[in-house]
Amino acid sequence: MIELIHVTKRFGETTAVDDISLRVERGELCVLVGTSGCGKSTTLRMINRLIEHSDGEIHIDGQQIREFREESLRRRMGYAIQSTGLFPHWTVERNIGLVPRLLKWPQARIRERVEELMAMLGLPMGEFAGKYPRQLSGGQAQRVGVARALAADPDILLMDEPFGALDPITRETLQEELRDLQSRLQKTIVFVTHDMDEALRLADRLVVMDQGRIKQQGHPLELLREPADDFVESLLGGEDRGLKEAALLSVSERMLPLSPRLLPRERVSQHASLREALSIMLWRHAERLAVVDDEDMPVGELSLRKLVGAKAHD
Amino acid sequence: MTEAASDVAVRGARRWLTPLLWGGLLLGACLGMQHLEGLFRLVETDSRSVIYARADFLTLLGRHLLVVGVAALAAVVIGVGAAVAVTRRAGRDFLPLVAQLASIGQTFPPVAVLALAVPVLGFGTLPIIVALLLYGLLPIVRNTLAGLQGIDPGVREAARGMGMTSGQLLRQVELPLAAPVILAGIRTSVTINIATAAIGATVGASNLGDPIISGIVNGNTAYVLQGALLIGLLALTVDSVFARLQPAASTG
């Protein structure tokens, strides 16, 4: 659990972070989002004391971070950044084992842990262990960066635009993998990004920042449905908000049970988002879709009226 | 010896072939200079002696190496130390000052340093070591600074963010990454100083500069050539040793 209580950071005359309070529960993925210079990275770096806060208190599991030695505090938290920061003169294996080695784990345990992480992140040991960072693609390097952040099995993970430099397809894959990892590992994650789609896709709690202040925080759907002001609304996509909300809702939430009526030919998976369903309808010129499960068996149907959430009959 | 082991040995020997070759030539020239008497007669027809004989060449070579080695060692300790110190948070204010001092050290001619040092330190090897140290400092300081400043800031940020202490960061990350550039600076510094050390002979530090100075004073071109030949071979030997060390350091 991470708690920021009235935290302020001043650099000389300028106030980068202005009196923010924030609570990230255990197992929660909290995304800080905002335009550049809004203080989101500064906030993240105050949590592991790469930047010291000027005022207020920051607690980790109820203990003030200033009570820890800087290094031991950081070794308790994973840290992944956009440029990966992999050590170019170390192999992938050695890079991943960095924090366990700093914590003086026995060699055998480090090796075992590195192997486990590489398997978890889809980096076959035989192929990648001996490679140097310059031999990796952007996506592979970022996977190694995430593996290194997870190496000592920290409860807390701090991620500063980790996928920002990747191409859209790799980025989406890694976002999915992170969600997947998170559902299994239940870490407390603070994730910084300026990409709203990424933020909406990942966040359990979305924190919108502007000029060093928190404008609004809550579940992504809450923010989409009731943005606090024009700034939050425009950051969330303005006119596109409907589509962004639809992307967060799954077909199974709006589908109707199977009826004696003839099933439509066009189908959509029950795990798909409403946005994908809408796209199929637009593309196929269909107002009704059959909803199918993983075995492609029909489990219900979805109409356009139902999809858009129309209140009248049905 | 197994085949694989002998293979490694052969490859090792081949890697060191150039330094061995220059080193061999250097030693050969030191030991067998008198066999070249006929050759030197051609340049110096009217002198009675054409082979420098006031001291034997091997001793001069040893003293030459000692002076350059001690100066280089001190320059590395001071140069790398200063460059590391001014790239730490606490010493950052002194960075421009140190960079400037090192530049001044090189613009100051070693001969002038000798002239100023002799009254203070007396004749002998000490003033020439000081002169070489000052002269050789700049390439080492400059390259160490360049090497440290050339490290991707993300690497440093990650290292700190992962919980490395500043000592661990320096030893495990910064110095290894900067090593090839630092080594190039040391190479430049040492190679220049091998030639510069010859002027030490003017203040009583006997080394391979002796035959040159003595040749100039006595108008004996053969002596000058012998000193120059040996200094040239020494510079080539040492330089080729550094050339061998360098690629090994970059993969470290």
UniProtKB/TrEMBL annotation, chain A:
Xref: Pfam families: ABC_tran
Gene Ontology biological process terms from the UniProt entry: quaternary ammonium group transport
Gene3D superfamilies given in the database record: P-loop containing nucleotide triphosphate hydrolases
Name the source organism: Halomonas organivorans
Q: Which InterPro entries match?
A: AAA+_ATPase, ABC_transporter-like_ATP-bd, ABC_transporter-like_CS, CBS_dom, CBS_dom_sf, P-loop_NTPase
Q: Could you tell me which residue ranges the CBS domain spans?
A: 255-314
Q: What family classification does the UniProt entry report for this protein?
A: Belongs to the ABC transporter superfamily.
The UniProt record lists the ABC transporter domain at 2-236
Protein name according to UniProt: Osmoprotectant transport system ATP-binding protein
> Which keywords accompany this UniProt record?
ATP-binding, CBS domain, Nucleotide-binding, Transport
GO terms of molecular function:
ATP binding; ATP hydrolysis activity
UniProtKB/TrEMBL annotation, chain B:
Question: What's the chief localization of this chain?
Answer: membrane
Please name the Gene3D superfamilies in this protein's record: MetI-like
ABC transmembrane type-1 domain spans which residues? 61-242
InterPro entries registered for this protein in UniProt? ABC_transp_perm/SBD (IPR051204), MetI-like (IPR000515), MetI-like_sf (IPR035906)
| Taxonomy, superkingdom | Bacteria
Q: Which PROSITE patterns match?
A: ABC_TM1 (PS50928)
Q: What is this protein called?
A: Osmoprotectant transport system permease protein
Instruction: State where the protein is found.
Output: Cell membrane
